[in-house]
Amino acid sequence: MEERKNVIECRNLTHYYGKKLVYENLNISVGEGRILGLLGKNGAGKSTTINILNGFLAPRSGRCLIYGEDTQNLSPATKARIGYLIEGHIQYSFMNVHQIEKFYSGFYEKWDRDAYFNLINRLKILPRQKISTMSCGQRAQVALGLILAQDPDLLILDDFSLGLDPGYRRLFIDYLREYAKSRGKTVFLTSHIIQDMERLIDDILIMDYNRVLYQGPLANFQRDFKGFFFEAEGAFDLSGAPEVVNLERLNNHCELYTYASEEEIVALLQSRGVGFVNFRRENLTLEDAFIGLTGKY
Ligand SMILES: Nc1ncnc2c1ncn2[C@@H]1O[C@H](COP(=O)(O)OP(=O)(O)OP(=O)(O)O)[C@@H](O)[C@H]1O
């Protein structure tokens, strides 16, 4: 069987800021044509990873390869295959959408102006309106349009949904997925808006402080990670039980998060003498599962 090529391959990445550990021995791979979402709480290390990927930051140890080249030393040909969206930032915002398209097109060999204008034409803006006078969401769409027109093979999008309203986010996500899938693009992105990820990504990487909590196909995570809710009176102790990923308790209401089966959890509760009622498996949205896995705070 032919093995799918990895576009991004990070091996044993370790990073500290001074003495503060961000993570140790992090491994990430992103297969060609896949859309991977990196999710984590504030401060988990997402921007650090993006900065290592785009070569701004050298990891303390380990290596990060894109198309087989070290991100600290990418050749111009490989750089040209990568489009970065860093917080929707646009320079030259005194230009309007036509002027900026013309300006950028001069720098790129494979410029695809249709990809830009297909997106831009959906914005409710005046024909000659300057980018500086547009709303935050509109500016983010212009930044994205300029990246899509570059026709990169790999897109790296940092916190792309920052400040976008639900309508713009939906437009962006559906447009991006269709663009990436129809052209076989690889995408690495971060976002805090977890419910958006459900319709966009193929693979999920969930980071917590200093460690990876999950890495794999989104469908597998949604199939395997479960929440069992029940009511219980009095104190009980499930410490040391490997089945329990997280237990949240508020008065009698208990939420137990696990990769184990219902039978295994019922057997565990019984073996620990927990008197429980109203036991049920809860249907988890991706956001519920994320919070169940990472904890509420
Ligand atoms: N230049 C720096 N110097 C010192 N510590 C830093 C620096 N940059 C980031 N950190 C710390 O490293 C950790 C990871 O930060 P990072 O910005 O990568 O997190 P993040 O997951 O992107 O967070 P957020 O979701 O809030 O954007 C945080 O604890 C942060 O305080």
Structural features, described:
31% of the residues lie in helices and 31% in strands. Helix 5 packs parallel to helix 6. It is built from ten helices and 14 strands. The longest helix has 18 residues, at 166-183. With 297 residues, it is an alpha/beta fold. A six-stranded mixed beta sheet has the order 6-7-8-3-9-10, with helices on both faces. Strands 2-1-4-5 form a four-stranded antiparallel beta sheet, covered by helices on one side. The two termini are 44 Å apart. The chain is elongated, with a radius of gyration of 22 Å. It folds into two domains: 6-220, 3-Layer(aba) Sandwich (Rossmann fold), CATH 3.40.50.300; 225-294, Alpha-Beta Plaits (2-Layer Sandwich), CATH 3.30.70. Strand 1 and strand 2 form a beta hairpin. Bound molecules: adenosine-5'-triphosphate. It comes from Alistipes timonensis JC136.
Put the structure in a nutshell:
The protein is an alpha/beta fold and about 300 residues long.
Bound molecules: adenosine-5'-triphosphate
Alpha-carbon Rg, integer: 22 Å
CATH class of the largest domain: Alpha Beta
Number of strands: 14
* Head-to-tail CA distance between termini: 44 Å
Low-confidence stretches: none
Structural class per helix/strand content?
A: alpha/beta
Counted by DSSP, the helix tally is 10
Enumerate the strands of the largest sheet in spatial order, edge to edge or round the barrel.
Answer: 6-7-8-3-9-10
CATH-defined fold name of the largest domain = Rossmann fold
Order of helices and strands: EEEHEEHEHHHEHEHEEHEEEHEH
Protein name: ABC-2 type transport system ATP-binding protein
Pfam family, one: ABC_tran
InterPro entries: AAA+_ATPase (IPR003593), ABC_transporter-like_ATP-bd (IPR003439), P-loop_NTPase (IPR027417)
GO molecular function: ATP binding; ATP hydrolysis activity
